[in-house]
Write a structure and sequence with these properties.
It is built from five helices and nine strands. The protein has 196 residues and is of the alpha+beta class. The protein has one domain. The strands form three sheets. It has a five-stranded antiparallel sheet, covered by helices on one side. It has a two-stranded antiparallel sheet with strand order 2-3. A two-stranded antiparallel ribbon has the order 4-9. A hairpin with a 7-residue loop joins strand 5 and strand 6. The longest helix is centred in the N-terminal third of the chain and has 19 residues. It is globular. The model has no long low-confidence stretch (mean pLDDT 89).
Length: 196
Amino acid sequence: MKKLILICAVIIYVITLTSCINTNDKIKPEKTEELNFDMQLAKQMIEKGDKIIVDITAKDEVSRDEYNKFLRDITDAYDGYEDVEWKYIFFYNKEIDDNKISTLHLQKNVFYPTIYHQNIELVSAIITNTYYKNKFFNNSLLTITEEYLGADSKLKNWYRKYVYRKDDDDNWVFYGFGGEMNLADDNFRPNYLELK
C-alpha cells in the first residue's frame, strides 16, 4: 500500500512538473487589421480628462474637498483606471499625506500637455483588431495619439497615447497610457504652453 501511494505521489509530481514546462509556444493571431477611427470622436474621448487637468492646473491651491473631487473626476474620466497616481503628479506629497493640511498647493514645475494647449494636436486614432483561431482571444484596441507639433526644443518628440479596449458591451473603455505623461523640472510650469 505504501509503495502504491509513493508511486502515485511520484506520478502526480512528474505530471505537475511537466505541465509547468515553458514550451515558448505563443498563441499567434491569424489576422490583424488596422482601421482609422473617427478623429472627432477620438478628440471627444480625450477631452474630458484633459479638461479636468487644465482646470486643476490653472489653480495655485485647492481645498481638500476640491482635491478629492479632482481625484474622483479624473478616475471617472478614465473609466476607473487607477494605475496613474494623479495626486503625486500635481500635488506635493507632504501636503496630501498630512490630513491636517486643508489647503493643498499644486506643484509649480510640472507641465501636463493637453489637447487644449497650443501646438498639442491629435495626430492619429487607429483601431487594431486581432483575430485568433480561438475567438476567445480576439481583441480590439483603439490607440489615440497626440503630439507636440511646435518648435520648442524642450517639447520636441513629445507624444502621449491613450489606449482603449472594447468591453463585453462593445464600448470603448480606457485601458492605459503610452508615451510621456507630464514634464517636470525647473524649466516647466503648469502653464508652460498657452491654451488654444
